[in-house]
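Hi P.,

Sorry for the delay on this. The queue was packed all week, but I finally got your sequence through. Input first:
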Amino acid sequence: MALEIKTLKDAASLNIDWNLAPEDAVTLYLEWGNNNWHAEHAPVRSKDDFATYFVVDNWEEKPTLRLVRRNSEQAVDLLVLDLPKDLEEEFKKEHEGLKGLYSPSEKIKDWLKKEIYA
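Then the structure:
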């Protein structure tokens, strides 16, 4: 799963799953068989199945954005970066300091898509 992603522009060629939430990734890749074929994401069938998605990591003082590639064996951060100040403040306000991994908001996704595909 070794990829060299140094900037958001480098992610333009990846098949990013914009709707995969961190909790869905756990269900798919760590709890095999816990989802069905009628769900938005088909069940994982082998270690060759993988997903690439963004999460906002709020375990530290400052939230960070992570581009993650996951299969049933590992999760690798392809890119870690800070949120722009306005999006960081909005995120902090919305989540009121609660620690965890979160799906990016629609505003964060819009910003990411603009940075990646513009």
